[in-house]
Specification:
heterodimer; A: Rossmann fold; 4-stranded antiparallel β-sheet; 12 helices; 12 strands; globular; B: mainly alpha; MetI-like fold
């Protein structure tokens, strides 16, 4: 199988794992992947998210180049790297806002974009994708709250429509979450009446209301006024420390990345060029590109 | 030349009622076509888009009057039954103005921010739920002003039916003119009748737009004529 040979050549995250002794998120081994290739069933080692040889191109431009990585439940992984390096693409692939050109993604042991039919992997139906996707929540850079719904409704609509909760139950859960994000008193406001920071907190509550296993955070403070950033980061820190939700963040807030991450992955040109524990990554990176990047942003 | 008798005035008023009916029925059919075709033109299956696009091009490119004749005179040759002129007119006007309206729907739906659909996907809404709960409520207020234009166009377009002998305002007017030989008063009056009907429609659409915008937490649209502030003490008496 051609995929195997590619793998042995291109496996920076895997090699990195072995040498650094890192066993947490972001690790994978070539052997397991081979097993998966031959049986046609996703082999899980307890990991929640798994990318196998994922390639994504936009026209001529290869944004992700045969990427492999794994994330274990409850881990917090931060993706860093220069713009255009493919960080956001990973989150968008996981959220199924994009489809991979090659490779497979599994979430909780289920293929995200594929289904098995007669022992063969075929593109998944819309229904299958939706089912697997329920495990994933996302917070966007631009909040993307629904302007036609009041704050409470923004948080309750999906639990009611998608999870089938009763209005009362959804309301109760939403009020708790809005209390948690410090907006318990703004249930009846429209998003347009809130500040950017408040909108982003509502968006966080909205994502959490679906009780996702994985929370994707896509540069969630980049669109905020500087004085509002800290409040949102504090909230996320709080959620990271008090819940068991798995987090994948793309962020330029290195202080935050250092505080909450179990693993930092450095991307460049569609590949993971280095990864490891934040203490190591931020104080003593090995790769030249990582050093350059960090000295520019820190 | 003779005076316009009360009976003839009544003929004109009856014509107003027919015009109103024609407008309402055609608008209802037109709205259904506009939403159906407009949404189909943004469908993810190309064949649906193709069929809807073809409909749009054909009906936009044909004359409503000729279509009306065609439905009334040609269709019976194939089917063996004939629609009454009123319904032939409603069909022709509804299908034609629905085609125009589909462009309004398509444009407004496409103008909803991409992030809104993405948020809908991230929350695992089905495509139908995304449309119903997220996209259409946001697109709807944007559709109202162009719909208002089309509605007024449609109202005036109903005058075409007088050619087929449907007794609308324009038909009544030509009867009255033939009976009395007075063109000036008759046509001036029906000009005003259309104007008043159009003004009523526009007023109604304004109210609808304000409500729709308030319903999604948006600022109300500017008034054409700023309302006199209620708090201000009237100087020299209130006019209304």
């Amino acid at each position: 199988m051609s995929a195997d040979s590619t793998l042995s050549k291109k496996s920076p995250p895997i090699a990195g794992t072995a040498s650094s002794g890192e066993t947490a998120a972001g690790s994978a081994t070539a052997q397991e992947t081979t097993a998966q290739e031959t049986t046609g069933a996703p082999v899980t080692q307890g990991e929640l998210i798994r990318f196998d040889h994922v390639t994504k191109r936009f026209g001529e431009n290869t944004v992700l180049d045969s990427l492999d990585f794994r994330v274990f439940p409850g881990k917090h992984v931060t993706l860093i790297g220069p713009s255009g390096s493919g960080k956001t693409t990973i989150l968008r692939l996981l959220m199924t806002l994009l489809k991979p050109d090659e490779g497979t993604i599994t979430v909780g042991g289920e293929y995200l974009n594929h289904e098995k039919k007669n022992g063969r992997l075929v593109p998944a139906s819309e229904k299958h994708i939706r089912e697997v996707r329920k495990n994933i929540g996302m917070v966007f850079q631009q909040f993307n709250l629904f302007p036609n719904m009041k704050v409470l409704r923004n948080v309750t609509e999906a639990p009611v429509q998608v999870l089938g909760l009763s209005r009362d139950e959804a309301d109760e859960r939403a009020r708790e979450l809005l209390e948690l994000v410090g907006l318990g008193d703004r249930c009846d406001a429209y998003p347009s009446q809130l500040s950017g920071g408040q909108q982003q907190r509502v968006a966080i509550a909205r994502a959490l209301a679906m009780r996702p296993k994985v929370l994707l955070l896509d540069e969630v403070t980049s669109a905020l006024d500087p004085e509002l950033v800290q409040g949102v980061l504090d909230l996320l820190r709080d959620i990271a420390h008090t819940t068991d939700v798995t987090m994948l963040c793309v962020t330029h807030e290195m202080g935050f990345a250092r505080d909450v991450s179990d693993c930092v992955m450095m991307f460049d040109q569609g590949k993971v060029i280095e990864f490891g524990h934040p203490d190591k990554m931020f104080s003593d990176p090995e790769n030249e590109r990582t050093k350059e990047f960090l000295s520019a942003v820190l | 030349m003779s005076e316009i008798s009360p009976g003839l005035w009544e003929l004109l008023l009856k014509g107003v009622w027919i015009t109103v009916q024609l407008t309402v029925y055609s608008a209802a059919l037109g709205a259904a076509v506009a939403f159906g075709v407009g949404l189909a033109r943004a469908h993810r299956l190309w064949i649906v888009r193709f069929v809807a696009g073809t409909y749009f091009e054909v009906f936009r490119g044909t004359s409503a009057l000729i279509l009306m004749f065609w439905i009334f005179f040609v269709l019976p040759l194939g089917f063996g039954w004939q629609l009454v002129p009123m319904w032939a007119a409603v069909l022709a006007l509804g299908l034609t103005y629905g085609a125009y309206g589909s462009e309004v729907v398509r444009g407004a739906v496409a103008a909803v921010a991409k992030g809104q659909r993405e948020a809908g996907i991230a929350l695992s809404f089905t495509p139908a739920q995304q449309l119903r709960k997220i996209v259409l409520p946001q697109a709807w207020p944007e559709m109202i002003p162009p719909f208002n234009n089309l509605l007024v166009e449609l109202l005036k377009g109903t005058a075409l039916v007088s050619i087929m002998g449907v007794a609308d305002i324009a038909f009544g007017a030509s009867l009255v003119r033939n009976a009395t030989g007075q063109s000036a008063p008759v046509y001036t009056v029906i000009l005003l009748m259309y104007f008043v009907l159009a003004a009523v429609l526009t007023r109604g659409m304004r109210v609808l737009e304000r409500r729709a915008k308030a319903g999604i937490g948006q600022k109300q649209p500017e008034r054409t004529f700023p309302r006199r502030s209620r708090e201000r003490v009237p100087v020299g008496g209130e006019s209304r």
